[in-house]
């Protein structure tokens, strides 16, 4: 196959998952589409220059490579976006606490984390990842950005803080809240919920 046909096949196969991943981090959709397009074009450029190893350009071996390029494109866009506008969106502590705890600080019915059974077997299920994705999209915007940069883009804490203009305290608070909310969401929508 020549590079043009390879590119067409890769674009058809990976564009939708790449776009979904990009949209988690970048809005509006057009900007996420641009990041995906840039990642695909970077791949073509590397193929043309011979930088890409022969084995990496075949089948499933391409996916981690392509998503790696996309992660860098997303991170670059986030750095550019937040470099000049260091937003300090505040999460409403009282609203967060009211979703999970009563006035005495006890868990509300159905909000307390429960023990998860057989997480290894669950991880293999595509439906589980769809629920995880939905739960991440339900997080407040700031917490979702911080969590996804750390856990999905593999940025370290200093990079997340620098990119989003956060203090370390704010970063850790966002991570803690995101993890708690994800645990509650997954408990309600997957581990105890109806998955049919």
UniProtKB/TrEMBL annotation:
<feature type="domain" description="RNA polymerase sigma factor 70 region 4 type 2">
    <location>
        <begin position="132"/>
        <end position="182"/>
    </location>
</feature>
<dbReference type="InterPro" id="IPR013324">
    <property type="entry name" value="RNA_pol_sigma_r3/r4-like"/>
</dbReference>
<dbReference type="Pfam" id="PF08281">
    <property type="entry name" value="Sigma70_r4_2"/>
</dbReference>
<dbReference type="InterPro" id="IPR007627">
    <property type="entry name" value="RNA_pol_sigma70_r2"/>
</dbReference>
<feature type="domain" description="RNA polymerase sigma-70 region 2">
    <location>
        <begin position="12"/>
        <end position="83"/>
    </location>
</feature>
<dbReference type="InterPro" id="IPR014289">
    <property type="entry name" value="RNA_pol_sigma-24-rel"/>
</dbReference>
<dbReference type="GO" id="GO:0006352">
    <property type="term" value="P:DNA-templated transcription initiation"/>
</dbReference>
<protein>
    <submittedName>
        <fullName>Sigma-70 family RNA polymerase sigma factor</fullName>
    </submittedName>
</protein>
<keyword id="KW-0731">Sigma factor</keyword>
<dbReference type="InterPro" id="IPR013325">
    <property type="entry name" value="RNA_pol_sigma_r2"/>
</dbReference>
<dbReference type="InterPro" id="IPR013249">
    <property type="entry name" value="RNA_pol_sigma70_r4_t2"/>
</dbReference>
<keyword id="KW-0804">Transcription</keyword>
<keyword id="KW-0805">Transcription regulation</keyword>
<dbReference type="Pfam" id="PF04542">
    <property type="entry name" value="Sigma70_r2"/>
</dbReference>
<dbReference type="InterPro" id="IPR014284">
    <property type="entry name" value="RNA_pol_sigma-70_dom"/>
</dbReference>
<comment type="similarity">
    <text>Belongs to the sigma-70 factor family. ECF subfamily.</text>
</comment>
<dbReference type="GO" id="GO:0003677">
    <property type="term" value="F:DNA binding"/>
</dbReference>
<dbReference type="InterPro" id="IPR036388">
    <property type="entry name" value="WH-like_DNA-bd_sf"/>
</dbReference>
<keyword id="KW-0238">DNA-binding</keyword>
<dbReference type="GO" id="GO:0016987">
    <property type="term" value="F:sigma factor activity"/>
</dbReference>
<dbReference type="InterPro" id="IPR039425">
    <property type="entry name" value="RNA_pol_sigma-70-like"/>
</dbReference>
